[in-house]
Amino acid sequence: MDMLIQIIVAAVGSGTPLLFATLGGILIERSGIIQLGAEGLMLMGAVVACMTYLNTGSLGLALLAVFAVSAILGVIHGFLTVTLISNQIVCGLAMTLFGAGLSAYLGKSYSGIPLPGSVPKWHMPGLENIPLIGDLFAHLDVLTWFSFLLVIVMHLFIHRTSWGLHLRAIGDNPPTADVMGIRVQAFRYGYIVVGSMLIGLAGADMLLVYSPTWTEGMTSGRGWIAVALIIFARWNPVRALVCAYFFGALDTIGFRFQLLGSHIPSYFLKMIPYIVTILVLMYLGWRNRNKPSGAPEALGIPYIREQRF
Amino acid sequence: MNKQPVTGEVPLNQGGASSSSRFIRLPYRLEYDPSKRVNVWWITIASVLLALIVCGIFIAANGMNPFPVYKKLLSGAFGSSFGLTETLVKSIPLLLCGLGVSIAYRISVWNIGAEGQFAAGAIAATAVTIYFPELPIYISIPLMMAFGVAAGAFWGLLTAIPRTYFQVNELITSLMLNYVALLALNYVVFGPWKDPKGFNFPGTPVFTASQSLPVLGDSRLHLGLAFAIIVVVLYAFTIKYTRWGYELRLIGANAEAAKNAGIRISRHIIIVMLISGGLAGLAGMSEVSGVTHRLMYGISPGYGYTAIIVAWLAKLNPVGLVVSSFLFGGLIVGGYSVQTLGLPSSISNMLQGAILFFLIAGDTIGKFRLKRND
Amino acid sequence: MSPTISVEMSQICKQFGKVAANDHVDFSANAGEIHALLGENGAGKSTMMCMLSGVYRPTSGTIRLFGHSVKIRSPKEAAQLGVGMVFQNFRLVQTLTASENIVLGEKSSFWRGAKWMKEKQEEIRGISEKFGLAFPVDRPIWQLSVGEQQRVEIVKTLYRGAGLIILDEPTSVLTPGEADQLFVTLEKLKAEGKTIILTTHKLKEVMAAADRISVMRKGRMIRTVDKSDTSERELAQIMVGKEISPPRAMAKREKGKSLLSVQHLDVYAEHGRKALDRLSLEVHQGEIVGVAGVAGNGQKELAEVLSGLLPWKQGRVVFNGQEMRTASVRHAIESGISHVPENRMKSGLAGSLGIVDNLLFKSYRTKERSWLGFLRIGRNRQWSQELVEQFDVKTPDLDTPVQQLSGGNQQKLLFAREINRQPLLMIAVHPTQGLDIGATEGVHRLLANLRDSGKSVLLISEDLDEVMQLSDRVLVIYNGAIIGEMSREEADRERIGQYMAGLHDGGEEAV
């Protein structure tokens, strides 16, 4: 039983960055823009968090800086994909490569320096008295609590608010949304910016909570796994939570195996998340071969108003 | 290569494509004109220059004067015969991988797995040296090449099959496979293939002379350059003069019309991914056999990723590929030489990403014209 | 008591570039009437209505709505002024529920809890019950039938308070039963004092539903009549016009052997929709067979099946004495079928490639064009140059991307490619769409020459003039089947028009 709780705690720990990145990606893709730059944004989030935290010692400022930088990157992404209708795939690639390069450049002198503190934990009063899971919640930090809250807020936002309705409309059928008086371009910008901020937060969370020193390329493909998670989660925030923790568990499973005295080399255990990602995608592709994937229908198709006046 | 934009029949006066806010009225707006055709060389040059300026700002923010840094970068890469040779050596894998991804991008298959295919090729070529150590050069080199190409092609196939039969996005698959291949590489160099006499260095034993590609004189320039040049010529020739190349051009230009001409696209995806992976595999083989003479940890400084930018900068054009791989080879070498100024070599990665950003903006910005808002 | 005029459009002109879609059109409709705007495709009816609903702005002319002179600048403003339009392609978001679609764009109340949604659903249900427009309000649109989707669209206009409801070709997507139901609803709306305008080219439903009928032809308003003063036959005459262009002087030819024989073809298109329903037709050597019909009755699928793009479920296709067993584009090309597709830039040409590459499309596998997998570059260039000259394609050089050519030259290029292959049968779908008069003439001449040289043409077109002018035989397709066949001598506009509307000679409904 203890073992199980340990695995869950570890899964939540490594799954939370994935969750943030997936939620951000869902927000962007729901508005109809393909988001492939998650890896670069996460790295930038991590390095900015590290630099600000080490220089100012303030966690709040670190998060603020992360939000600001990711928002700027989001605006760039929006300008390219929404205004200039550039190739969204290559645009995401550029974001990844630029983020990786810039973060490595910026973070060079911070590499390997341990952080001065950690994200405070927060105990919800009364929860620790619940048997079994009470123990689990005692280990949670503020950012993880925030991710829970975010899942709920996003779910309600998408399905219970007028803006959420507009979001679904612009992702599925921008011409109709436009006829109904919704400003497609402005909303797409907004969602790209907010989504990018969440992905940046994913990187920050990874650095501040999961592995508290900066190393070059520390996300090691988690941004891309988050891209795959968007597909697994069928663009649904609640499912994203489940999927993120599942992959979080896969991530830690290698470590667990070694603790159990397994003789499988760790390299192979580390391959598990990547291989499972491909296999799950293949399974989904096969199962949904005649069904809609749940993707927004206008995903990846730029929208431009016809000018016939 | 762009998807056609959807257009809606909505009047512009509600706020055009650019003036998306009703609160701010900009004096100018960008107006999209799909029939406008701009394909000018200066956009490419301007992209590179703007990327240099943006990165210069970052360098300046780091407390350095960007001009000496760029000067050092240039002179390190192209300023001496040593630098030039190094640049050429680095441009070989870039050219091979760049050719590989170019052929895939021609038919809009977004293979970003050249890094993994490169590693697979390097591992397979090294396997020949580990398991058949005593072969004469005229057998071992061709065998290493065959293994390298086959392994890279297989790695490419692992991306192509999910794409064609399971509708899995090839971007994710090829990237995931990069990590798998790199982990496999780390496993062999830290584990079973580690040189017992290597003082714990994560690498295989050094190749014998008969396992190494011949070099030009006493420089580091190896036979891989010849492979790369042959492949470029073949690529240019195939695309322009063969039936198959014509089919690729057709699919790339208009897949719908290609179907009308009786071309089966899924078959082409598989073949193209085999070739794409095979070329990256060949790059991996020539790198271990020609440059490092052993398989070792961190053998690629991201050749597979840089190749994507090489291909994009060249607009998939063979001559452009030669030029841009040479430039990026120089960027990698120059990146090492600025380390003497106390800057990290990742400055070249940053530049690469910035260049790609400006390139894609340049791809479509020509289709807009600036109009006065009235 | 004279009826209140609710909408009055006077002297409306609308130019698209050089083309005049509307030419000084006057139109008015009264409150409490169903007014039909009748005309062929391209007569300018939809353009008129789009100006009323704010999608387009008129080049000149004035619009008065409910007694006030107005300028309608956007669909949103039109809605505020009480104009609601149901487009032929519904403006619905497929994944949202019916009620969500109806309230879409509403800015009030950020929070939409169960209570809010329930209130809105009650309101929507109230409207829909009042006018007999039943549909499940909480199901996503993609689960609704086309008829139900249309009802959602109508309720959407009512929910937004429309006093004037425009329906653009409302029955083109409905089954006869659904159409009858729609007319019942329209009567109820009329009784409420709403103004209903429906654009259509179907005579039967005009006579069944409308109070007054305005007929347009070629961008002009021809006449407005009361239903009681007219008949279907008269309307058909006004609609297609009396002037018939002089028939092309063509040598009468002996009927050749059968070239293509299609028997009882069943074809299902996307989402299991039945596109062709036991369709049979015959094409002989050396004749042009015109297929007339209203858009969306299976023309596209017919062309795709014959060119090997779409598989068929049942039936036999025999071409040139050989039965075709499976759909294969390559096989169709090799056996001599040529296909000029509907949308030339989408599926006929590769816009970014040059002239030579576009000419090679279907012949690059032949011995003349390639050898051992290598293209015969020099020879192909010369061949292209000859074709360009022969077909008079105006182009700066052979490497110009074809997207830079004019529409007429693109079409010439496409025909050059297809005719040069010496096809036995050419399937031409809307071959003159979007071309000016000169280019249209050129295409017609090419088709006629092809026929005169003993080849066959299956001409699928919505342009009745074109079909009548060129065809040796005219077939009319309706609901995926050929319901009428006439020889050149028998074919007259009125008869074709009636078949196109699904009517047999006597006036009773077909099928």
Structure, explained:
- The complex is a heterotrimer of chains A (309), B (374) and C (511).
- Chain A has 309 residues and is mainly α.
- Chain A has twelve helices and one strand, in the order H-H-H-H-H-H-H-H-H-H-H-H-E.
- Chain A is globular, with a radius of gyration of 20 Å.
- With 374 residues, chain B is mostly helical.
- Chain B has a single domain, classed as ABC transporter involved in vitamin B12 uptake, BtuC, CATH 1.10.3470.
- In chain B, helix 3 runs antiparallel to helix 10.
- Chain B is globular.
- About 5% of the residues of chain B have low confidence.
- The longest helix of chain C has 17 residues.
- Chain C is globular.
- Chain C starts with a strand and ends in an 11-residue tail after the last helix.
- Chains in contact: A-B, A-C, B-C.
- Strand 1 of chain A pairs parallel with strand 1 of chain B.
Largest sheet of chain A: none
End-to-end distance of chain B: 34 Å
Q: Per CATH, what is the topology of chain B? A: ABC transporter involved in vitamin B12 uptake, BtuC
Annotated CATH architecture of chain A: Orthogonal Bundle
CATH hierarchy: architecture of chain B:
Orthogonal Bundle
Count of DSSP H/I helices of chain A: 12
Helix content of chain A: over 70%
State the major sheet of chain B: 2 strands, antiparallel
Strand order of the largest sheet of chain B: 2-3
Give the largest interface.
A-B, 69 and 73 residues
Specify the CATH class of chain A.
Mainly Alpha
| Number of structurally distinct domains of chain B | 1
Give the oligomeric state. Answer: heterotrimer
Beta-strand proportion of chain B = under 5%
Given the C-alpha coordinates, what overall shape of chain B results? globular
Secondary-structure element order of chain B, as H and E? EEHHHHHHHHHHHHHE
| CATH level-3 fold name of chain A | ABC transporter involved in vitamin B12 uptake, BtuC
Number of helices of chain B: 13
Instruction: Count all strands of chain B and give the number.
Output: 3
Q: How many domain regions of chain A? A: 1
The overall pLDDT of chain A, averaged over residues, is 88
InterPro entries (chain B): ABC_transp_permease
Membrane topology (chain B): Multi-pass membrane protein
Transmembrane segments (chain B): 39-61, 81-105, 112-132, 138-159, 171-190, 221-239, 269-289, 295-314, 321-338, 350-370
GO molecular function (chain B): transmembrane transporter activity
